[in-house]
Amino acid sequence: MADHVVVCIPTFRRPKMLARLLEAIARLETSAQISVVVADNDAENHAGLDLCRQMQAYPWPLTAVIAQQRGIAQVRNVLIEEALKTKAGFIVMIDDDEWPETGWIDAFLKGAAETGADVLSGSILFSQDSTTEGHGDIRYPSGPIAMLQGTGNLLIRRSVLEEIEAPWFDPAFGLSGGEDREFFVRLQRAGKRFAWVDEARAHGDVPETRANLCWLMRRAYSVGNSDMRVVLKYRPGPARLTLELAKILGSLLLSPLLAAILVASPNRRALALQKLCRACGKLSAMAGRRYNEYSVVHGE
Fold first, then answer.
1. In the 8-state DSSP scheme, what is residue 138?
2. Strands 90-94 and 119-126, bridge-based pairing
3. What is the distance between the terminal CA atoms of the chain, rounded to a whole angstrom?
4. pLDDT tens across 198-253, in order?
5. Which pick of 105, 121, 145, 197 has the fewest CB atoms within 10 Å?
């Protein structure tokens, strides 16, 4: 019997990108049984919901719902709730600003069979004409990996989601991001295994609003802020906090000097500045501050 996979897509005010993604999913070449669920987080305008309702000849069963409560964690929880209403053995998540290759699903299923991992991530490749300073592919060799990065291209075994209580993604990270990191940390603490599948590839481009160094620095600050909030959620002991403070101090002292040295190398300079901003974000989280990155929409 063919594997049943539910493809889950969160969307918010990006109907053009969502249409591109749905068209790519329609072209998948797979023997698996596919269902698609779209959760639109814009209850007022619901452009994503309207788009799905217009796609009457779609080749896979397509369900579209509204996620009433604003936030990336909240919309992911709605998607999982809908996916678990089916009998699918696997749940795949892909963001609305990406699109997969035709062999995407089969590559994921092959990776799951070969590694036995509970959660697997695929690579995300960015087109050459959209890359800019500091942007690069998200890619690792296939095989077991200690920790995953994000939920933009992800396969989860159904059993994993059935074993943990809802909400699967912490709503406290709804507008700040970091809900994926918290999710992975919780699974790691529960003994779940991770793997990377380089062949399960999705593609993305960089919207104009992200194609600059200022956005990269804000993004690094946001990641540092949310990562530290995850650390603090699980009440680290004095030794862990001391280590984190040492890392932050090192980045604050060395990153500006490194950026000055690498001024003639844009990508390497950007990495140094990102480390600096990430350290600042961590420090702000330790001071009780939260940065809500997802209050701004990038792309259409």
1. B
2. unpaired
3. 39
4. 999 999 987 777 778 888 889 999 999 999 999 999 988 999 999 999 999 998 88
5. 145
